[in-house]
Amino acid sequence: MTRAPPPLRWLLAGLRTLAVWLLALLVLFEEWGWEPLQRLLARLGRWPGLRWVEGRVRALPPWAALAAFGVPTLLLLPIKLLALWAIGNGQVLLGAAVVIAAKIVGTAVVARLFTLTQPALMRLAWFAIFYVRWIALKTALLARARASWPWRAARVLRRRARRWWRRTGLR
After folding, report:
1. What's the whole-number mean pLDDT along residues 96-124?
2. Is the CB of residue 65 less than 8 Å from the CB of residue 114?
3. Whole-angstrom Cα distance, residue 41 to residue 71?
């Protein structure tokens, strides 16, 4: 078997590194954002009208539960397009803020939807297989990230900041 020429190997190595970093960022965002955002929406879900909606979502059959994930994406798409239009018209900060806000809101909604529909989704064999593999990959990536120097340094800084915060009484 012949090896690829060096420029192609470098390109493939660069793409692989980029893919690993993007996946790591996705996992870290999920780790840091998914749970807190899901808990926030769970608190909102205790409101009487929303409690009824959550009950209906929990009762969805597997394929309808899967389709429910498309709703936040479809609802946020026009907002993201408007943000891109704003960026294109020189409103870069406004557009970027809208994109970030849409990502946070979308993640919160999808996280809550997943929590509500996970039992139904796990009845889809292919989804259950994918989910188990995703959790294994996520666990391995998080273990590598947590063992890295930047992660450990960030934990030390965070602990110091918390201690300082408590000592100063700025809570």
Report:
1. 87
2. no
3. 16
Residues 77 and 84: beta-carbon distance below 8 Å: no
Q: Judge contact between 95 and 83, C-beta under 8 A.
A: yes
Tokens representing 140 are: 């391995």
Count other Cβ atoms within 10 Å, centred on residue 147.
9
> In this structure, how many other beta carbons lie within 10 angstroms of the beta carbon of residue 84?
12
Q: What does the alpha-carbon distance between residue 150 and residue 46 come to, in Å, rounded to a whole number?
A: 39
Distance CA 109, CA 37 (A): 8
What are the structure tokens assigned to 37, written together? 């955002």
Q: Are residues 127 and 121 in contact, defined by beta-carbon separation less than 8 angstroms?
A: yes
Distances (CA, A) of 45 to 19, 59, 132: 36, 15, 27
- What are the φ/ψ torsions at residue 61 (nearest 5 degrees)? -70, 165
Q: Where are the alpha helices (DSSP H) in 45-124?
A: 48-58, 62-68, 70-88, 92-121
pLDDT score recorded for residue 64: 93
Q: What digits encode the pLDDT tens for the residues 17-31?
A: 777 777 767 666 666
Kind and range of the H or E run holding 161: helix 149-168
Q: What are the CB-based long-range contacts (under 8 Å, 24+) for 133-136?
A: none
